[in-house]
Each structure stands twice: as structure tokens, then as C-alpha cells.
Design goal:
Strand order of the largest sheet: 3-2-1-4-5-6-7
Strand content: 15-25%
Distance between the termini: 11 Å
Shape: globular
Number of strands: 9
Number of domains: 1
Number of helices: 8
Helix content: 25-40%
Radius of gyration: 19 Å
CATH superfamily: Formyl transferase, N-terminal domain
Structural class: alpha/beta
Largest sheet: 7 strands, mixed
Bound molecules: glycinamide ribonucleotide
Order of helices and strands: EHEHEHHHEHEHEEHEE
């Protein structure tokens, strides 16, 4: 059996997924242990869950950093190794024809917050970073400093919808309002886009006439608490294999995408 992996988590809210992951680590469902929990706000209730279990935690106050940078956009606050041009070239959160000043300001403020995150995380070496209800987009500045090998992604996220449908901040609400007859959740690796990275696992549930946004959230969260630990367990067992696939359509267009293959367990 491989040695237990070290898991770091980032959260913004209640932390019920964090709790499910912690439980799975404790009961042997995941061959791993949580080494830190970081949050983008001190209001994240999940921080208490970490503290109760004696797991180191920290807060990087994104709202304050972004607000302060808007008031005083002095480039001297940027991390020394920040290359705005290269980040904007790589990013895929904004369309290429977006207002360049807005895009530059967005990534600059993120990089200030992200460099603080990176320096806080440096105290706790980790193998896998899980986003467990972390409501911030990560920029290439951060992603490239964690994913040093492009074919070995190590940032995972859980999203409350069946991606690629309903990316964004309100997956269950968007699913309900669209009138879907199925809802679900997705675990995926992070890439430069918003909820666009290679899919690891998905679970779905039926939506009936009597469902409300609240009941959909309830059904979805119950599936998340099972799916996320399962995907992390596959990672810990070295069973997730990213593969770059190339497909050619009938009209000759070439489509490339990294997909995740799941290896059979060792006999
Ligand atoms: C979960 O539903 C998760 O899928 C969602 O936030 C909730 C966090 O709940 N994540 C996102 O929307 C990410 N874009 P929790 O704090 O109780 O785990």
C-alpha cells in the first residue's frame, strides 16, 4: 500500500465536505491525513471543524486584499515573481476580447491573495489540495506553483452540478431554475478555466415535481459527501491517470482534452 497522502483543504463556508473528507481519513476510507485547512474568510464555519480536530488552519482575507488593491493599485504590492503578461496569456477565466485593464486588475489582486496563500501553505507540505466549497477562482499564478508537472494535476474541486452544465457559483440553483430532471455533482481537477478541468467522478439524482432548491441542495450534498472522499481515495491509491486525448471530427476539426482514466486496483 502506498504511504498515506498529505491533504490540504481550502474552504469558504460550512465545511460539510471537509467533514466528510476528515471522517473518511479517520475511518480508513482515504489513505491520507489532513495537514491544513485554509479559508478566504474568517467567517468560514468549517474552520471550527478543523480546529476541533487539532488541524492547523489559517485565513487569507481575500475580500480585504481585493478591496485594498482597488483603492490603491500600487504594483509594488505584487509578488516579486508576478508576470502579469504571462498570466493573462494563459488564463481562460475571461474571453480574450475582455477589457484588458479589468482583466489585469483582476489577476493582480488575485496574485497578491494567492501569494499569501502559497506562503501560508508552505508551512504544511502536501500531496493533494482539495477545494471543499472554496468560492474563489484560482489563477494561473497559483495553479502553476502547485501543479509543477502539467500531467500530474494535484488540485481537486467539487462542483454542485453535472459539469459541463452550470459552472459558476450556484450549481444547484441553476439546475433547478433550468427545469432539469436530473441534478448532480462533479469532482474534477482544476485547470485555468472556471469549472472546466478534467472530470474525475460524477453522481446524479432525479428531480421531481415536488423538489425545491432546498431539497435539491440536500440531495446533492448527500451525494457530494460520498463522492468527494471516493475520488480522493482513488488519488491516494494512485489510480487517477490523466491522459491527453485527441479527437478528429467529421469536418476535420481537431479537439484535444485531458481526461482522467481510472486504473483498476492493484490485485
Ligand atoms: C458544496 O455544495 C460545493 O459543491 C459547493 O459549495 C458547497 C460547499 O458546502 N462548491 C461550489 O459551488 C464551488 N464552486 P460545504 O462548505 O458544506 O462543503
Amino acid at each position: 500500500m502506498p504511504s498515506p497522502i498529505r491533504i490540504g483543504a481550502l474552504i469558504s463556508g460550512t465545511g460539510t465536505n471537509l467533514e466528510a473528507i476528515l471522517n473518511a481519513c479517520e475511518t480508513g476510507g482515504i489513505n491520507g491525513r489532513m495537514v491544513f485547512v485554509g479559508a478566504d474568510t474568517s467567517k468560514a464555519r468549517g474552520l471550527e471543524k478543523a480546529e476541533k480536530r487539532g488541524i492547523p488552519s489559517f485565513v487569507v482575507d481575500y475580500s480585504k486584499i481585493i478591496r485594498d488593491f482597488k483603492k490603491n493599485p500600487d504594483p509594488r504590492q505584487l509578488p516579486e515573481d508576478y508576470d502579469g503578461g504571462a498570466i493573462i496569456e494563459r488564463q481562460s477565466l475571461f474571453p480574450k476580447d475582455s477589457d484588458p485593464e479589468k482583466v489585469a486588475a483582476y489577476f493582480a489582486a488575485r496574485a497578491i491573495a494567492e501569494s499569501e496563500l502559497i506562503s501560508r501553505m508552505a508551512d504544511y507540505p502536501f500531496d493533494l489540495l482539495v477545494l471543499a466549497g472554496f468560492m474563489r477562482n484560482l489563477s494561473p499564478y497559483f495553479i502553476d506553483r502547485v501543479n509543477t508537472d502539467p500531467m500530474r494535476p494535484r488540485i481537486m474541486n467539487i462542483h454542485p452540478a453535472l459539469l459541463p452544465a452550470f459552472a459558476g457559483t450556484d450549481g444547484y440553483g441553476d439546475t433547478f431554475r433550468y427545469g432539469c430532471k436530473l441534478g448532480g455533482c462533479t469532482v474534477h481537477f482544476i485547470d485555468y478555466g472556471a469549472d472546466t478541468g478534467p472530470i474525475i467522478g460524477q453522481r446524479a439524482f432525479p428531480i421531481t415535481e415536488t423538489d425545491t432548491i432546498e431539497s435539491i441542495k440536500e440531495k446533492g450534498l448527500a451525494l457530494e459527501w460520498a463522492l468527494y472522499p471516493e475520488c480522493i481515495a482513488l488519488y491516494a491509491d494512485n489510480r487517477l491517470i490523466p491522459v491527453k486525448m485527441t479527437y478528429t471530427s467529421k469536418n476535420g476539426d481537431i479537439y484535444q482534452r485531458t481526461v482522467v482514466k481510472i486504473a483498476q486496483p492493484d490485485a
